């Protein structure tokens, strides 16, 4: 039984954690999912690390929606830096799944992007944990999450 | 008895720490609050870490008001990075409660924002410590602190 | 007997370390001051940490004057980040006392600012070490160092 | 038998890891190569560290293609910072081999650059592991990877 | 016998490491110098840390020439951040000696600057290791390396 951590925020405008969990459960049965919701993306690093060290998760998804203002961009940078540091302190992958609020102009498209990116990173997680050789075959293939693959040169 | 750390600054132009403490005490009785005031936001990371490691606080609020100049924005970034690092070193949440001096044009509105954000993050702290399942229900709901919730897409 | 570290640079254009030491000695008798001068502000983090860990200082002032060019701003950011990291590694406060070379246009005013900021942060140090309750009373009061206090909203 | 780690991404649009491995195998026989492919460049730091600590690699190449948008530049910065941190935590070199998607305008030239830079950094790896004295002779010689050497002043 | 580490790059367009070594040997006899040349400035942090921890150097000079493009500026920032982190992890000074390729317009002047800065930082190293009290006398004197001292206010 693999333990997977899902860490998301109340700040985001779509339930990305819920979508990721649904995608995982639809594709893999042998999972135990532990979810933790925090206020904002800057709370994700320590929450993810606690899922690893206190709940024994062997991989975590950290999902969030940085806002569109300049100061939100800085927050996203701080959160990302913290997520990488948390990974290095634990030798454990934390998949960062961020959708910037200004990636799409229309609300409906933003919502779709948030759901798709969460689901496709959940697929990445499945490959990393259960089928790492598939990722190796996709090396350099211009894969994208939430939008169409751009493909190799 | 839960020990809560409150860390704030003399640089800020409103007593955010006082507002947070008032909010906590009005809503929860079983608390011991330890407060530490430092000169500026760059002093918050180590002060917060000491509240955790030397005073046994199980969660900390770090409250401050970054100034409006470009160099103040850099200070805020450094302080935030340090607060995240402090959390990762201690496996303990530190809720960052910053109001940028230029978030509002009028002084009265800035003051109101500082008070409201401090109080609403105090409410977040209460949920995190006492009612974590409530936060999970609010995942992806577009919650904001100090301003109106933007809501889900 | 409290041990205080003073760390400054040869790059700065005013003897900020000297001013800080003078202010400390004029106000407190029960002090041992250990001074270390390094070439530039990027040398301050490790020098400050060595004052803490190898010389047993219980608090350090790190004084410097970042230059006015864009690359100097980056240096200041790196030095500040390092000073915060050093504090977190030692659970010890290091008061950063920086005056940017472009904070004042006239040389004489820059010199005055450097001296005043060094002295007023020395006063902060005295409060932090000897009278921490005074700082708590000043929380949110809009205090500034080297320039006039802006005051509370 | 030297163990070399190769860490690359599915996001990149050319199989840089494959090119590096081909270059290494064409030039050195006494190698064991362990490859790990991850989704994006922000996953490289922990993957590289795991190759060092869990697979006993004595040096790693981390290959990736940061995108052309502003937020991709920030990702690259976060990944690079993480790769340096991983090196410092392990006292082991990780050669960062990044080609920014906007370094060339034409797709064919971008592809050529990605292959050449991967191969020439593989040559650097060979020098670092097997012939360190050659690098010393090249000190200050204006060497470049993937493009023509600029040469000394 | 003092062990000094010299760490430089093949990317730089002048042999800064060679100049630093010449300056050190011309002024001090009781030295053992250990040199390590790496491809670029991002390789300097771990190489410097290895000189300290694996070769017992008690101080290191890290010399390099960041390029003139925007992405080179980011590299310089990452390298500097790593060098400060390496110092904090080892409680050992690493003198960063960087000349940005765009500090001078003419190649001959750039070359002169690179040599002078390397030599003058070597003089700083000598003071730090052998004559620390001289640096204290120079505190706040507006010293520069590679260009004329600007002097005190």
From TrEMBL, chains A, B, C, D, E:
InterPro entries: LS/RS, LS/RS_sf, Ribfl_synth_arc. Its EC number is 2.5.1.9. Keywords: Riboflavin biosynthesis, Transferase. GO terms for molecular function: riboflavin synthase activity. GO terms for biological process: riboflavin biosynthetic process. CDD domains: Riboflavin_synthase_archaeal. It catalyses: 2 6,7-dimethyl-8-(1-D-ribityl)lumazine + H(+) = 5-amino-6-(D-ribitylamino)uracil + riboflavin. Pathway: Cofactor biosynthesis; riboflavin biosynthesis; riboflavin from 2-hydroxy-3-oxobutyl phosphate and 5-amino-6-(D-ribitylamino)uracil: step 2/2. GO terms for cellular component: riboflavin synthase complex. Belongs to the DMRL synthase family. This is Riboflavin synthase. It comes from Methanobrevibacter cuticularis.
């Amino acid at each position: 039984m693999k333990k997977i951590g899902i860490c998301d925020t109340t700040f985001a405008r779509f339930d990305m954690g819920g979508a990721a969990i649904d995608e995982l459960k639809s594709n893999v049965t042998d999972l135990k999912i532990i979810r933790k919701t925090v206020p904002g993306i800057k709370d994700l690093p320590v929450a993810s690390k606690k899922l690893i060290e206190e709940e024994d998760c062997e991989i975590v998804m950290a999902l969030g929606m940085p806002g569109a203002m300049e100061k939100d961009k800085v927050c996203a940078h701080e959160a990302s830096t913290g997520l990488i540091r948390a990974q290095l302190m634990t030798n454990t992958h934390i998949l960062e799944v961020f959708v910037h609020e200004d990636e799409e102009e229309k609300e409906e498209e933003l919502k779709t992007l948030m759901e798709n990116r969460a689901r496709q990173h959940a697929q990445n997680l499945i490959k990393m944990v259960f089928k790492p050789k598939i990722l190796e075959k996709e090396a350099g293939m211009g894969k994208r999450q939430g939008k169409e693959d751009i493909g190799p040169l």
